[in-house]
Amino acid sequence: MNDLKPLIGKIQHLAKKLEAERDRILTEASQGLLADMQERIFDDGKASDYSQIGQYSAEPIYVPVPYPQLKNARLKKIGKTGKKTKKTQYFGGGYKEFRAKAGREANKVNLDLTGSLRLSMKIADYKGGKVIYLDQKDSVAKARGNEDRFKKAIFEATRQEAEKVNAVIERNVQRIINSL
Questions:
Q1: What does the pLDDT look like over 82-134, one tens digit per residue?
Q2: Would you say residue 7 lies in a domain?
Q3: 176 falls within a domain
Q4: Cβ-contact 21, 122 below 8 angstroms
Q5: 61 falls within a domain
């Protein structure tokens, strides 16, 4: 039994070090996951299965002018006939044309018109771990609406993203073990 004391001591020391660094390790892993998810969704326009989220509609639309979330967009109150209107601008090429005229990505859906959805993705402590969530009710509605409209998961971590989280945790645990 005496020859087990050093091993038991090392195990207890390892447990204390792991507990002491737990939050830092989980924070590092969750920050990496958040960055990867934001890049996939908002830069690459990819769903959780790595397919394109979708295409923007080319159905004609009217958009209110000024568009409150796009203060710098050069939108003009022009109707379908080319004449001035009181409150809207007509886009014969639909939402796709609107995005292009507003200086935004129009060839693929990337869910980043104003940046508000991206900025609402946050990390929080939850039941001893970390969770990524949307901190605005309208952002939750936008996310759900887009997943419903495009009929695919978008805001779930991919297998590769989850594997990357596990790799970060394993690397840190191994570092702690090696330091004993």
A1: 888 888 888 899 999 988 888 888 999 999 888 999 999 999 999 999 999 99
A2: no
A3: yes
A4: no
A5: yes
